[in-house]
Amino acid sequence: MLRLNDVVLKDVVSYHSFFSKQAPGVKGPTIEKFLKRFEYNAPLDLYQVVDLEDFNLFFLDFFFKIFPKNLSIFDRQAANIVTANIIWSYRSWRHFKGLPCRGQRTWSNASSCYRSNLILRDYKKKNVRKIFGKYGGPEQKICFLCEYINYLWKSQWFSEWMHSRKWIKYTLKKKKVVFYLDLYATSKGLLGNLRSDAKGVTKKKKKMLTGHVGFDQGFTKIYLKAKYAVSKKVRRKLSLR
Q: Which residues are connected by disulfide bridges in this protein?
């Protein structure tokens, strides 16, 4: 047995058995593409578990993270974006990140990079429409950026995110208070100011953050619901703030 990432992989004696048991949907052509992209000359089944202590576990760890652990459609969707971006066009992924590939310049292989970006753009559009509905292109982009910035603050600056969340709840409890949320400014990272009595917040972040973050996931969908639930005549008079 092989233990990786605090998970015991049962009956895994080689990379080949790992593919057949832990990576559903991976067949021979996919394995050959990996071997070609990462320039592995030896077959995967030659690396046994007993030799993995001396062998670099990066390759196996890479597969274990990107492939889903079951046949759930949500895990499969999460893996599709990785397979489309790395497996199908590893060179394009390197060029997109501004990194050289096999000694080439970053400006080369433009056609494959263009095709890869088209596939990724269509994939993102489909996912955004599933989350936010059939909104226009600009609204989709704004919603996606607002959700991303809100999640970024929650994951990296949780104390500031919680302070903004408490400030929002405190403001909404007041009577005759209209809470304005500027989605355009939030999508550009212009988040305003915190209260001067904020504790545990640096001066730099006080100038960047107010009640524009601190929301639950999907807050933009609820915020835009009123805009797209009215008639066309009234909709023309409304605008995102």
A: none
Is residue 89 included in any domain, yes or no? no
Residue 119 inside a domain? The answer is no
Instruction: Please give the sequence-ordered ranges of beta strands (E in DSSP) within the chain, or none if there are none.
Output: 2-4, 7-9
DSSP output for 188-207: TT------TT-SS--HHHHT
**Residue 233 banded pLDDT, cuts 50, 70, 90:** low
Among candidate residues 35, 68, 101, the one where a domain is terminated: 68
**How far is the C-alpha of 135 from the C-alpha of 123, rounded, in Å?**
16
> Residue 188 in contact with residue 107, Cβ under 8 Å?
no
CB-based contacts of 205: which residues, under 8 Å, 6+ apart? 157, 160, 194
Whether residue 177 lies inside any domain: the answer is yes
Residue numbers of the domain that contains 53: 1-68
Using the 3D structure, point to which of 68, 89, 106 is the last residue of a domain: 68
* pLDDT (tens digit per residue) in 49-93: 445 544 445 555 555 555 555 555 445 545 555 555 444 456 655
**Residue 180 within any structural domain of the chain:** yes
Cα 236 to the center of its chain, rounded Å: 33
At residue 154, does pLDDT exceed 80?
Answer: yes
Regarding whether 142 and 61 lie in a shared domain, the answer is no
Contact (Cβ atoms closer than 8 angstroms) between residue 95 and residue 109: yes
**What is the distance between the alpha carbons of residues 43 and 69, in angstroms, rounded to a whole number?**
23
